[in-house]
Amino acid sequence: MDAVSNPFSPGAGSPPPDLVGREPLLETVRVSIARARLGNPSKSILMVGLRGVGKTVLLDRMRDDAEDAGNYTLRIEAPENRSLPALLAPQLRTALLRLSKQAKAKDLAMRALKGLAGFAKALKLKYNDIEVGFDIEPEPGLADNGDLEHDLQDLLAAAGQAAQKAGSSLVLFVDELQYVQEDQLAALITALHRTAQRKLPVILVGAGLPQLRGNMGNAKSYAERLFEFPEVGPLSPEAARQAIAKPAKDHGVKVDAAALDLILKETQGYPYFVQEWGKHAWDVATKSPITKADVQKASTISISALDASFFRVRFDRRTIAEKKYLRAMAELGPGPHRSGDIAQTLKVQVTALGPRRASLIAKGMIYSPSHGDTGFTVPMFDAFMKRIMPGEGWRRD
Ligand SMILES: Nc1ncnc2c1ncn2[C@@H]1O[C@H](COP(=O)(O)OP(=O)(O)O)[C@@H](O)[C@H]1O
Ligand SMILES: [Mg+2]
């Protein structure tokens, strides 16, 4: 069918034609923000889930909703090697400048901007990736200690006071939170704890891989009580069917039940895969309805498309030793696997693999669902590893 009007959109952060099956989560976040705004006790929310389940598009949608409801928001994505203050400062500046346009909040927003200037100046030595230039004079003593944990508290409190005065709230949307360094995560947790205690309307809505939960607990032992950690997983069978059938129907195209069943089976309801299969089934089909035979053809194309992008980018950046570790995991199946079994497959002692495992966790390739277990953070990565490193050659050095 016409590729130009193909509604499906596989890709990291690409908004789907229909964001299905996530209504309860959207509602939880809406309520949390609205409560914080009124000064009611409210928890920050950290969505955790594997790659490709739709965390990023959810964050974007939640941000749009929050803005529409009159909240002040900022959105950052923590890459593997930039500091949180460097990411936060420019975005916070934009939000505060917007707040300062509100007559009621002007003075407090200006004060928060002074705090931000002091914050950036004082922390520049330690986090030399802070780049923003500030045209505002700092207020001596406000967020300018040079100690992140202390200064971030001051800064978010000042910003929260401004938002409160405007009858609004400040919502921080942070993606890939698992990459934030432990000390910086600790500072963020402390700052949010403080604003919550002072009933200031500042909320974090974050997303990250499953290791985020443990990272938060390591940074501050009380973090698990302070936040909600909803899991984002594959779509229910019903939602996955809808994710295909609804956009097609909106374009006047039907999808046979058998075709939907096969897509469901192949994708296991993982949103990224659902979009990929939807896209190729559409392109393969010559007319409505899309049939099971179309999906069969689409499967081969979808898998090679994933191998060339979604899976491949994660594989290419690994060292040879890391690839071997991942390949050994794949040998054992989808997982999760016991560390002992992985070691045995590689014919080495478990302890010898400690550093490699830790590095793969830090890079977001694998995670530990429970003590001593290891799983892939990318669904169906085991099958990919077997395709890209076929046969027995990987066992040799
Ligand atoms: N609820 C959903 N319904 C249908 N497709 C979705 C849904 N959520 C995400 N997707 C699709 O899944 C893919 C991955 O989404 P993304 O937000 O990048 O995932 P993550 O951030 O968890 O890795 C995108 O192509 C997106 O369009
Ligand atoms: Mg993402």
Using the alpha-carbon principal axes, give the shape.
Answer: globular
Q: Share of helix among residues?
A: 40-55%
Please state the structural category.
alpha/beta
Element order, helices and strands?
HEHEHHHEHEHHEHHHHHHEHHEEH
| Alpha-carbon distance between the two ends | 48 Å
Q: Work out the helix count.
A: 17
- Order of strands in the sheet with most strands: 2-3-4-1-5
Tell me about the biggest sheet? 5 strands, parallel
Count of beta strands: 8
The portion of residues forming beta strands comes to: 5-15%
Low-confidence stretches: none
Bound molecules: adenosine-5'-diphosphate, magnesium ion
Radius of gyration: 23 Å
The mean pLDDT is 96
Short description:
The chain contains 17 helices and eight strands.
Structure explained in plain terms:
The chain is an alpha/beta fold. Helix content is 52%, strand content 9%. The chain has helices at 23-37, 55-68, 84-99, 106-123, 148-165, 182-197, 211-219, 223-226, 237-250, 257-267, 271-284, 292-308, 312-316, 320-331, 339-346, 354-362, 381-388, and strands at 44-48, 72-77, 170-175, 202-208, 227-228, 337-338, 366-367, 373-376. It has a 5-stranded parallel sheet, sandwiched between helices. Helix 9 (237-250) packs parallel to helix 11 (271-284) and helix 14 (320-331) packs across helix 17 (381-388). The termini are far apart. The model has no long low-confidence stretch (mean pLDDT 96). Magnesium ion binds next to helix 2. Magnesium ion binds at residues 12-13, 55-56, 175.
